[in-house]
Automatic annotation (TrEMBL):
<dbReference type="InterPro" id="IPR023210">
    <property type="entry name" value="NADP_OxRdtase_dom"/>
</dbReference>
<dbReference type="InterPro" id="IPR020471">
    <property type="entry name" value="AKR"/>
</dbReference>
<feature type="domain" description="NADP-dependent oxidoreductase">
    <location>
        <begin position="16"/>
        <end position="264"/>
    </location>
</feature>
<dbReference type="Pfam" id="PF00248">
    <property type="entry name" value="Aldo_ket_red"/>
</dbReference>
<protein>
    <submittedName>
        <fullName>Protein tas-like isoform X2</fullName>
    </submittedName>
</protein>
<dbReference type="InterPro" id="IPR036812">
    <property type="entry name" value="NAD(P)_OxRdtase_dom_sf"/>
</dbReference>
<dbReference type="GO" id="GO:0016491">
    <property type="term" value="F:oxidoreductase activity"/>
</dbReference>
Length: 274
């Protein structure tokens, strides 16, 4: 099954359609056609909106500020463009990403009003041991509406491997958050390496993994995969041994005693990377 996404307003990301200013119909149509051309395929199985074309608190923000709302492309226009692509056979199913409970339910309502030929199937949000916000609102929506979570950043950009806090709190120079330091403001605002809560939580999760004889990375991904609403975890591996740890996570079952210890850490350091 192949998938792709269309990025919303992202003026700083000039490599994406020159830095799109909106998710209007033309941007969505151009993005779909460009993806089909680059991938060399006739259709895309799952096509997702990468992030909302409206103000929502995300990437480290935790509180909604009504005054931050800006004029945005109506959801109706976005769904019309996606519906035309479905009817043309360019995409089969649609999904959302970095969404809120309001956004998910509003898109579902409108998709029924528009009588889309394909169901909205997925929401791709961050979910990991350091960020379990999905469970507080979206999980209920997904359960009742039969929407699957595609959990991205299951290792919190590598933090849960323990590599950044194993010795000098910096980690290896080739690690992503060092290699691209200063170039990914959204990630750095969420994954604060020097946060005391992050350091303490990672230390304790690492100790739990060692106690049960598995790697911290395997523990982190296995925790995500055990969630009944998670259809898949979106991960990145640059080395073969990293891929091996991910595959190990898919093979193991976390016993109840590990989950009790994990939840104890979560209760003391809840969601330090929102």
């Amino acid at each position: 099954m192949g998938g792709a996404q269309v990025a919303g307003p992202s003026g700083q990301m000039t490599w994406i359609r020159g830095g799109p200013t909106s998710l209007d119909s033309q941007n969505i149509t151009d993005a779909i056609d460009d993806s089909l051309r680059r991938l060399g395929v006739d259709y895309i199985d799952l096509y997702q909106i990468h992030w909302p074309d409206r103000y929502v608190p995300m990437f480290g923000e935790t509180e909604y500020d009504p005054s931050s709302q800006y004029t945005s492309v109506p959801m109706e226009e976005q769904l019309e463009a996606l519906g035309r692509a479905i009817d043309a056979g360019k995409i089969r199913y649609i999904g959302l990403s970095n969404e809120t409970p309001y956004g998910l339910m509003k898109f579902l309502q409108l998709s029924k009003d528009f009588q889309l030929h394909s169901k909205l199937l997925t929401v791709q949000n961050s979910y990991n041991l350091l960020c379990r916000n999905f469970d507080s609102g979206l999980a209920e929506c997904c359960h009742h509406e039969r929407i699957s979570l595609l959990a991205y950043s299951p290792m919190a950009m590598g933090i849960l491997s323990g590599k950044y806090h194993s010795s000098d709190d910096c980690g290896p120079p080739e690690a992503r958050m060092n290699l691209f330091k200063g170039r990914y403001s959204e990630g750095e605002s969420r994954y604060k390496l020097q946060s005391p809560e992050v350091k303490l939580a990672v230390k304790e999760y690492t100790q739990i993994a060692a106690k049960y004889g598995i790697s911290p990375a395997t523990l982190a991904i296995a925790f995500v995969l055990r969630h009944p609403l998670v259809a898949s975890a979106v991960f990145g591996a640059t080395k073969l041994w990293q891929l091996y740890e991910v595959l190990q996570a898919a093979r193991i079952h976390l016993p109840e005693e590990i989950l009790v210890e994990i939840n104890d850490v979560h209760a003391r350091y809840p969601n330090p990377c929102p």
